[in-house]
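Researcher: Please predict.
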Amino acid sequence: MVTRKTYTVLGLALLLIGAGPSLADVPWEYVGPEMGFTYADAFFVTEQALYIGQSEEIDTGFGLYRYGFDEGEWDLIGFDGYAIFGIVVWGESDENILLRTWDGSGSGTWRSTDSGVSWVQTGNPLSGLPALQSPADTSRMISETSYSTDSGWTWNESNLTWYLYGGRGQAYDPSNGSVAYYTAGLGDETSRIYRTTNGGAIWSQVWLEGFNQMQGIDVEWDKGAHVMTCNDIQSRVLITSDAGQNWTWRPSPFHPREVLSPPWAASCFFVAGSAADETTYEVWWTSDLGDTWTSYSVGLPILPGPYWNNWIRIQAHPTEPILFVALEPTGVWRLDLSAVSAIDGEELDLAETRLAAYPNPSSGSVTIAFQDNSSLPMRSIRVVDVMGRVVNTLDASSEGTPLRWDGRDRQGREVASGVYRIVTLRPDGHVGESERVLILR
């Protein structure tokens, strides 16, 4: 078994760059759109673009907007005059899109298989929450009291009943497409947390406490060992390390609403919400399950009103160390972590990998092999530099067989001497196995 330090794109950059800016000093940058929005329930980030819609202003509509990273522009790509309640995008070129809408008279669920050029209306999920897709199995989706096993073409009702309507959080275990968590109780005196082990058909209650309003929830990406949810009223996070059998409260220095464990930040949780004095949006980071917190909120806007009248959504780029937050009513903000040199001296976790690169060091070409000729489900293999930038993309169609990187970038130029990371990209677009290699010219 090959063992090594598992370096995320962020972690590898931090290890190698040395002295540089602290994360607390890196400012958020405004992305747009200029008209802002309210209730950004439809907010999704892929490698190519970010997508956003709003679920309020039903009379005037908002439509579905796309911001292409290469183009740097916002485009209305459909559903003008519709409120958008949720969006899921996947595939090599964002060809698959699932959308939940409202047009003032009724709701609808739509599917596109050609990047939004044409749409087909599908079975409508019986819920009020946006659809959520499993990172481990793109055929599985949940949406509050309903679930799908065919990527949103048809929906089935779960054992959860309608009196639980108003849930705020949904999260899949990234390593298991059958396991997911759900928080309910908004507007109810009792908050609940549920867990499913069969993809959403049957949910079992794993936590119950009166007079608490649970919000966002997520599962630790690299291990799936911890689950974190948050409570904005009492400024606390709730953590389990045993799939919901036992939970532990941790205080937070702000009002947390959204929880995120990015695929490129091992053993970390980012939590977004409002400052304790209700004047600013805040994003905080913890690597020790809430024992300590660090604020990364430089440049985020002042709230125009009390925090409970505003909403926040947080998303991560699937392969690069970049965070995005959708902040009502201003728009989308971006935080690029690729140039950061330190995250408070955190140690990186040891993990096993089935990926090897040789010779290492190399003066040119590198062979990429998989242990025991095992086949890894993947979409492609990326070569990434220490700043998190994609240098080249390799064809992974022949899974399980050795591949070759010629030591050149996408334009055919020899890369400079340095450390590079070989990363497998899973079918869902998230990072899988990885290995680093040293190029010496």
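Model: Confidence is low (pLDDT under 50) at residues 1-22, 341-353.
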